[in-house]
Design goal:
161 residues; alpha+beta; five-stranded mixed sheet; two-stranded antiparallel sheet; 7 strands; globular
Length: 161
């Protein structure tokens, strides 16, 4: 018998570097640095993907979309999220809600959060009020606090359809 609810936790971190666009939550953010990664390194979308995969008790994002595969070089993470959302649907679930954090010392994320919610809701067939995105800092502690990286985490709840 299929479980009525499933919960997954996702996490991601990427180093900030020059010469890359900064894309978080499917939104391009104005900043002098971007995130280093095989794909577009969208930490929020990667955390949500891992949360969805975790809720389904599947392998993680790196196993499903390996950085050793050239077809994922500079991949649009929102397109990867679309593929994972299809797995959710094929498994007989829908997303009930997402709660997430973007942890960055800079740039400020708050001005971009409404656009992120709109972009993610569209892809995941959700209402914007079903997605929580909060902006946090590390109070100048560790690599994130020193503006060397950005991280994100997400909790997702799936419900059986």
């Amino acid at each position: 018998m299929k479980q009525k609810y499933r919960v997954g936790l996702g996490y991601d971190i990427h180093r900030l570097v020059e010469g890359r666009e900064l894309i978080i939550g499917g939104v391009k953010i104005t900043h002098e640095k971007g995130l280093l990664g095989h794909s577009d390194a969208d930490v929020l979308v990667h955390a949500i993907i891992d949360g969805l995969l975790g809720a389904l008790a599947m392998d993680d994002i790196g196993t499903l979309f390996p950085d050793t595969d050239p077809k994922y070089k500079d991949a649009d993470s929102v397109k990867l999220l679309t593929q994972v959302y299809k797995l959710v649907q094929e498994s007989g679930y829908k997303i009930n809600n997402i709660d997430s954090n973007i942890i960055a010392q800079s740039p400020k994320m708050m001005p971009y959060i409404p656009k992120m919610k709109t972009a993610l809701a569209k892809v995941l067939g959700l209402e914007e009020h079903d997605i929580s995105i909060k902006a946090k800092t590390k109070e100048q502690l560790d690599a994130v606090g020193e503006k060397l990286a950005i991280e994100a985490n997400a909790v997702v709840m799936l419900v059986c359809v």
